[in-house]
Amino acid sequence: MFQVVSNEILAENLHKMVLVAPRIARARKAGQFVMVRLAQGEERIPLTIGDADPAAGTITLFIQAIGASTRKIVSTPVGGFIRDVAGPLGKETHITNWGRVVCVGGGVGTAVLFPLVKALAEAGNEITTIIGGRSERYVILADELGALSKNLLITTEDGSLGYKGFVTGPLSEMIADPARAPQAVFAVGPVPMMKAVANLTREPGIETIVSLNPIMIDGTGMCGGCRVQVGTETKFACVDGPEFDAHLVDFDGLSDRLTSYRKEEATRHAAEGCKLAKEVAK
Amino acid sequence: MSNDLSPKERMAIDRVHMPELPADERSTNFEEVNLGLSADQALSEAQRCLQCKTRNCVAGCPVGVSIPEFIDALACDDLPKATQILRGDNALPAVCGRVCPQETQCEALCVRGKKGDAVAIGYLERYVADWAMLHPDRLLKAAKPEPTGKTVAVVGCGPAGLTAAGELARMGHQVTIFEALHDTGGVLRYGIPEFRLPKEIIDREVAVLLELGVGIECNVIIGKTLTVAELRDDFDAVFIANGAGLPTMLNIPGENLKGVYAANEFLTRVNLMEAGRKEDSATPILQRDEVAVIGGGNTAMDCVRTARRLGAKRAMIIYRRGEAEMPARIEEIKHAKEEGVEFVMLTAPVAIIGTEDGWVSALRCQKMELGPADDSGRRRPQPVDGSEFDIPAGIVINAVGTNANPLLTATAPDLNLNKWGNVVADEEGQTSIPGVFAGGDIVRGGATVILAMGDGKRAAAAIDQYLKR
Question: Which domain of life is it from (chain A) (predicted)?
Fold first, then answer.
């Protein structure tokens, strides 16, 4: 059992949750994740470890509550317990001093980006962070990431904050400017965003790393559900990843596999809704 | 009661038939197929044992159960004594009585099998173990072992780990099992379906170990949460039994289409996560009318019979050799056939065909014919030119095998591995690191529950010797 120490809402459907998990806090490195299962009968969900405090024995998770399971997880109150948290899983991010690095985060991917930016900053990189969101209220961790970055750029699709448009706008401007062009790019967010970033950096040959979040069951290298095509090889995100060379990832295949259970999840969603409606009616 | 029939009287008794749920009923649910013997059936079967002096059956048992002795106690209707003998040799008798391939082990060597049918040792083992679970108050109390003050870490709560833990605890050592998943049992829980091994049986076997003082910590991944080096520092000895790893891919086109599962994913969803089995399970599983399972082992049988129970109208085994070459247990093949599973033999997959929107629609296969025997002694299948054909399928399950799990070994540089990534260990389980032993699938590659248990038992004896030094 893992106790919830704090649980705050950062943005609509986005929670920052701190849990007591001393062994994971001690072992964890940037880029790694945990498998979380709230209670008996619930799903195992992979969540990136946002931060950790080995002295306090806690880890921080950023959780986007968009599915039935994640909604239940974020509804755990402070002092409450999560039954299962296993990790840290996946490979740690390869951190080195590239020089100029651009870190691109979209939606909840911004939260996954946080530990990478922190580690890259500690390694002495000059970081420009670009955060994208649909509108102002979906832009998260701007202050925290701003404090670690030389430049912080924000883009929103509706122009309610920062540049109007997508993260690729400011990124392509930087790439075109020899004085600002990065030596490496890290991108975490929705699959179409990561694909667009990869397409921008491929031609100029800028090393680009993406963090993937495919369907996963055990997360320990057993089930093979998280397989993804990387170049000519089939890789398993849980043991080989979750970070891969963006120029080799088959984003279309990844995107497609992510829809495998859309119908089943919609059915469950509807059933949960019914149950809730009945309870409200009582 | 005594067990003093004459050999002639014993020879006159016919082998018992295991009562089963009717095939049409069981193929729509997850209830256990084999129902277990009645008291009368068990007694009569126990009397069939000739109590011969050669005890060939014991030599055929990877954990060396004192088979004639427990059967004799059973024939004398002394179930507490039968339990004591059985549990003294085997940490998981209710599991072994259900999933061991007795027909190729103890029963294959039974003298009665030379002329007629072997004694149904597996059924009797199950009978005694199930009786013991239901009658805890009647069991003989074993003397608590003198604590040795030594501690042992066991990595993995599967058959090898549980067996080693039980043995070591009975020797007086303090054992802690570290399990990566959220529940106990390893492959017994995530791999073997409810209809062959009810989860309740695993819970009860584990409870026996907890009673012995074994500690179990779930959600601890050795190699990630803690390393082997850390365990080596904190414990007097370590036994690594973390099981199999990533699925072996088929390396044919279409393997990443939606609806293609590796056996472990399919089984884990249904067995461990209860998808399709319990209404309130949050984990989804796909259900399609036509399911093709590639492989001929017990895992393939478990997948295809599970698919049938999830509602597949056509559940098919696709195997590149013939039925005689299938590694699956005869009982599994028989049960699968009774349940309406189709066996497509001498057929190998060449590609998985998908729809425009990325779903599996068919398995493209080619016919095979058997050539001369290969290294494994089985006749090597060879493709028949121009024999390609498509089998319509909405789900394709790859049950051809697994590779070694890299998580533990990646952070244990001193641990010697073979070229496949399996841990190198000697007969007694000793690895390249003093005080660190290993057994089960991480050493053997894919094998059986009972071989893993045999490893656990031998390693426990070796660890005991090591700790006494």
Answer: Bacteria
